[in-house]
Amino acid sequence: MSAITIIQMSQDELGSFILQKLQEHENNKQTQNAVSGTCSINQAAKIIGCSHEGAKKLIMLGHLKTTADNRKVLKKSINDYLSTK
């Protein structure tokens, strides 16, 4: 059986805690989305933390790989880029 823990905190602390957990959740979602498949250039930019133009520059420099029509970024290339960053 699980134990129940009661934590006492102020309204501000609770707000900060909730925002922190939401940010962690969003970061986890972005990391999971980066594992397989493809995504748009905008999605790639958000995962990497740069602008759309920054992502396009990374594509032009060969740091990110795209599909043949240059519309989608391979998520594997995002992972590879982030692991060398």
What does this entry look like structurally?
The structure is a single chain. The chain is mainly α and 85 residues long. The protein has a domain of 50 residues. Helices cover 59% and strands 7% of the residues. The chain contains four helices and two strands; from the N terminus they run αβααβα. It has a two-stranded antiparallel ribbon. α2 crosses α3. The longest helix is centred in the first third of the chain and has 23 residues. The chain is elongated and about 55 Å long. The model has no long low-confidence stretch (mean pLDDT 89).
Q: How do the strands and helices of this protein lay out in sequence?
A:
Blueprint: H1 11-33, E1 38-40, H2 41-48, H3 52-60, E2 72-74, H4 75-84
Antiparallel strand pairs: 1-2
Helix pairs in contact: 2-3
Q: In which order are the strands of the major sheet placed?
A: 1-2
The helix content is 55-70%
Helix/strand order: HEHHEH
Alpha plus pi helix count: 4
Nutshell version of this structure?
It contains 4 helices and 2 strands. α2 crosses α3 (52-60). The chain is mostly helical and 85 residues long.
What keywords describe this structure?
mainly alpha; 7% strand; 4 helices; 85 residues; single chain; two-stranded antiparallel sheet; elongated
